[in-house]
Design a protein that fits this description.
elongated; 4-stranded antiparallel beta sheet; 5 helices; Ribosomal Protein S5, domain 2; alpha+beta; YigZ family protein; 5-stranded antiparallel beta sheet; Alpha-Beta Plaits; Impact_N_sf; Impact_N; 2 domains; 11 strands; Impact
Length: 203
Amino acid sequence: MKEEDIYKTLEEPSAGILFKDRKSKFFGYAFPISSEEDVKPIIESLRKKHHAAGHVCFAWQLGEKTHTYRANDDGEPNNSAGMPIYGQIQSFGVTNVLVAVARVFGGTKLGVGGLIQAYRSSAQMALEHAVIIEKTIDSNFQLDFDYSEMDKVMRSIKQKGIVILSQKMDLRCSLLISVRKSQEVQTKQMFDEMQNVMVQSRD
């Protein structure tokens, strides 16, 4: 198994956890996400769920090959919430994930050090309670060919266990296929060597 085409993410949203420090309550959650657009509705739903929370701080990371991330302190002192949460995302080595912590103030100020510790612990517990799975990084190709090549193409696809994402049968055949990143070069080469089959990367 080639490690470079594997990444870790969450199978499903985690059940909420509760971390307490000097009567302040920190509710931690972890969610799988596929784009930045997923973030806002989740945060809004947490604000409704924890309407007594003064802050809903979060961090997210997206991308399998290269990562983009954001950390949000939501009014807490600078870098006391979002970055400690993001540090746990890095520590667990997960991506395509959002970790959010809703804080209900308990009347005693924790100080910046106390906040960093509380948000870090809440994020850690949320990820510990999540189901972390491994997925493969895949490459997509489009194959265009005449009907006369159909048997040859389909036989190769079946032999190599290649996934067909979609197919279009008009005057010519067009298939969108997916292979693991580690098999990208040999797959392209295999179809390139077939006469009358056009191969294009579709990443």
